[in-house]
User: Fold this.
Amino acid sequence: MNTTERDLWGLGQQAHLLELVPDAVILRDGQGVIISINRGAEELLGWTKDEVLGRSGDALLHTRYPQPLAEIQAHALDAGYWEGELVHMRRDGRPVTVNSRWAVWHQEPGAAPTLVEISTDVTERRQVERSQRALAVAGSALAASLDATGRLANIAQVVVPLLADWCIVHVAKEGEPIQPVAVAHADPQKLALADDLLRREPPDPEVPPGPVHVQRSGRPAFYPQPSEELLAAIARDADQIELVRSLGVRSAMIVPLVTRGHTLGTITLVASAESGREYAEVDLALAEELARRAALAVDNARLYAEAQQLNAELEVLVQQRTSELQGAIAQLESSREQLLHLGQYERTRREEDRARMAREVHDELGQALTGLKMDLAWLQRQIGPKRKILLQKFRDMSDLVDTTIQGVRRIAADLRPIMLDDLGLVPAMEWQLQEFEKRSGIRCRFTSSSEEVELDAEATTILFRILQEALTNVGRHAEATQVAVRLDQEQGYVRLQVQDDGRGITPDEAHGARSFGLLGMRERALLRSGDFDIQGTPGQGTTLVVRLPLGQVEESL
Assistant:
């Protein structure tokens, strides 16, 4: 095989081998001139093999290297291998990120080496990683502040330099024109220029492109490569056009801050010529997602601020209402206390009147009836035994006087037992139980830990009247066969217990608003700072317990 035939065979074998590799393969000579590419490279870069053969790969692809190309080639030639990440520019101007592996191929001994670049497209993977990183950083920045303006300032700082070389955030307040609230620039020296540019109003806010138009339409504006006509539409005069050019605008996009169907404002992202960044559709999608999250965070901050304000106002209102209620409660308590004391005063006066009436009935009427009976006995003796009709009449009159005397004594006892004042509480209770047993037929048993308790007249009357009311309830409602009453003096208190074996009072009956007898007993105990309790067990009876403190309680009317 001669030299020409061998070269043709080698080229054919080389082309066949390149097509077997699924990744993009580019062959360069020692000076970087492209000598061959495979179909994978054609699809990745958008160039055909015929269009790239004999051309400088660096000039054609406008590749961005992590280090100077000369160093990469030198390392590959010396070590036989180099690997790194590059950014090639496709024929349509779209950048593509690749994982590139360089190797040296010696076709024949002594021949010039060939640099073989095998590239795998990692653009989508890097975009996903960048998006995830940007969203994570943005989430942390948004959570770092509870203030809406602070959150927008934080998002501007996140966007630069992750997605843009400079950024400005506009917010539209209700009833007011859109206003910038945050600006950031990768170059601190150009921050003031960017701020000055974007704070100037456009000649006509209704004409796109601009934050005003995006805010009103709610749709993003995307300018991968802004034209001179576009810059002229943005600027209001020649000075502003020069300002835009000095900032080196290469690519731009404006996305709305939309939440719950309402546009709060816009975020403007600009890529400068210095960074070589140029926006694609995927960048716009990421910017819209960032804007959506920022809008949600801002809206949440606003709602939080409103909630805090409402909470503060509610707290003030609650405090006012609480103060008013406390005043009303205090007034009601004072009125209730006055009514209780007034009721006690009336009861005390009534007890005094009863005692006076009982004495008058017992002493005056009783004495008059006794004298009348004595006169009747004298007249009976004067008539003699022969006047039988008159004698029978005198006997009937004497019996009537006896019955009247018993009735007078009973009425006097009902008004106020004389023995309560003369003999004390214990004998009066024993007598009351005896009288109740005679009238009702219910067996009564009374026990006391002492013959007399140390109570003043008012407390003595209260306990006696409570016992009377308790026995009245037993007779009317309990269906009992026996009642046990116990009176004890213990550790500064006097304790009265009334227990029957009846049907048992129900909770509704014990606390019913129409249980006037129980209400009266409770009030009597309360007036002396005492305790009142009544409990019933179905079929086993009712137990009433009253505890009054020993000693006189001062009365304030």
Observations:
- The two ends are 138 Å apart (CA to CA).
